Amino acid sequence: TGHMGNIFCGQFIPNTNDTQVVSCAADDVIRLFDVSTQKGIAQFRSHNNMVHKLAMDYANPNTFLSASNDGTCREFDIRRPDTCVIMSDLRRPKLYVLHCCTIIFC
Which pTM does this prediction carry? Predict the structure, then answer.
Protein backbone atom coordinates (compact mmCIF):
# COMPACT_ATOMS: atom_id res chain seq x y z
CA THR A 1 0.00 0.00 0.00
CA GLY A 2 2.97 2.34 0.35
CA HIS A 3 2.45 3.09 4.05
CA MET A 4 5.55 3.66 6.17
CA GLY A 5 3.94 2.63 9.47
CA ASN A 6 1.42 0.24 10.97
CA ILE A 7 -1.89 0.18 9.11
CA PHE A 8 -4.78 0.72 11.53
CA CYS A 9 -7.82 0.57 9.28
CA GLY A 10 -8.85 -0.24 5.74
CA GLN A 11 -12.20 0.17 3.98
CA PHE A 12 -13.30 -0.83 0.49
CA ILE A 13 -14.69 2.01 -1.61
CA PRO A 14 -18.38 1.35 -2.36
CA ASN A 15 -19.39 0.59 -5.97
CA THR A 16 -15.86 -0.46 -7.05
CA ASN A 17 -16.42 -4.25 -6.85
CA ASP A 18 -13.90 -4.30 -3.99
CA THR A 19 -11.08 -3.19 -6.29
CA GLN A 20 -10.31 0.06 -4.43
CA VAL A 21 -9.44 0.34 -0.77
CA VAL A 22 -8.66 3.33 1.41
CA SER A 23 -6.30 2.78 4.35
CA CYS A 24 -4.87 4.79 7.22
CA ALA A 25 -1.73 4.27 9.26
CA ALA A 26 0.80 5.48 11.80
CA ASP A 27 2.54 7.50 9.05
CA ASP A 28 -0.24 10.19 9.22
CA VAL A 29 -1.28 9.41 5.63
CA ILE A 30 -4.50 8.03 4.15
CA ARG A 31 -3.96 6.16 0.89
CA LEU A 32 -6.31 5.07 -1.87
CA PHE A 33 -5.08 1.84 -3.47
CA ASP A 34 -6.26 -0.17 -6.47
CA VAL A 35 -6.15 -3.86 -5.53
CA SER A 36 -6.56 -5.08 -9.12
CA THR A 37 -3.55 -3.15 -10.44
CA GLN A 38 -1.66 -3.08 -7.11
CA LYS A 39 -0.99 0.63 -7.56
CA GLY A 40 -1.62 3.68 -5.43
CA ILE A 41 -4.25 6.07 -6.73
CA ALA A 42 -4.11 8.97 -4.27
CA GLN A 43 -2.70 10.15 -0.95
CA PHE A 44 -4.54 12.30 1.58
CA ARG A 45 -2.04 14.21 3.73
CA SER A 46 -4.16 16.60 5.81
CA HIS A 47 -3.63 14.99 9.22
CA ASN A 48 -0.51 15.72 11.25
CA ASN A 49 -0.60 12.66 13.51
CA MET A 50 -1.51 8.96 13.28
CA VAL A 51 -4.83 8.23 11.56
CA HIS A 52 -6.67 5.42 13.35
CA LYS A 53 -10.15 5.01 11.87
CA LEU A 54 -12.01 5.41 8.59
CA ALA A 55 -15.74 5.31 7.89
CA MET A 56 -17.33 5.25 4.44
CA ASP A 57 -20.29 7.44 3.55
CA TYR A 58 -22.45 4.90 1.71
CA ALA A 59 -24.90 7.62 0.69
CA ASN A 60 -22.03 9.29 -1.19
CA PRO A 61 -19.44 6.64 -2.16
CA ASN A 62 -16.87 9.30 -3.10
CA THR A 63 -16.51 10.49 0.50
CA PHE A 64 -15.19 9.05 3.74
CA LEU A 65 -14.47 10.23 7.28
CA SER A 66 -11.23 9.83 9.22
CA ALA A 67 -10.26 10.12 12.89
CA SER A 68 -6.72 10.96 13.93
CA ASN A 69 -4.55 11.45 16.99
CA ASP A 70 -4.28 15.08 15.89
CA GLY A 71 -7.73 15.50 17.47
CA THR A 72 -9.70 15.95 14.26
CA CYS A 73 -12.38 14.09 12.35
CA ARG A 74 -12.16 14.99 8.67
CA GLU A 75 -14.24 14.37 5.58
CA PHE A 76 -12.42 13.58 2.34
CA ASP A 77 -13.59 13.25 -1.25
CA ILE A 78 -11.61 10.73 -3.31
CA ARG A 79 -12.02 13.00 -6.36
CA ARG A 80 -10.12 15.80 -4.54
CA PRO A 81 -7.34 14.30 -2.40
CA ASP A 82 -5.72 17.70 -1.84
CA THR A 83 -8.66 19.06 0.20
CA CYS A 84 -10.73 18.03 3.20
CA VAL A 85 -13.35 19.38 5.56
CA ILE A 86 -12.70 19.34 9.30
CA MET A 87 -15.90 17.86 10.71
CA SER A 88 -14.83 18.25 14.33
CA ASP A 89 -11.77 19.37 16.19
CA LEU A 90 -11.34 17.95 19.67
CA ARG A 91 -8.85 20.71 20.40
CA ARG A 92 -11.82 23.10 20.06
CA PRO A 93 -14.86 21.00 21.11
CA LYS A 94 -18.22 21.58 19.47
CA LEU A 95 -21.58 20.01 20.14
CA TYR A 96 -21.40 17.59 17.20
CA VAL A 97 -18.01 16.13 18.12
CA LEU A 98 -19.50 13.12 19.90
CA HIS A 99 -21.75 12.36 16.93
CA CYS A 100 -18.81 12.37 14.52
CA CYS A 101 -16.62 10.25 16.73
CA THR A 102 -19.45 7.80 17.45
CA ILE A 103 -19.75 7.14 13.71
CA ILE A 104 -15.99 6.74 13.37
CA PHE A 105 -15.28 4.62 16.42
CA CYS A 106 -18.25 2.20 16.45
Answer: 0.77
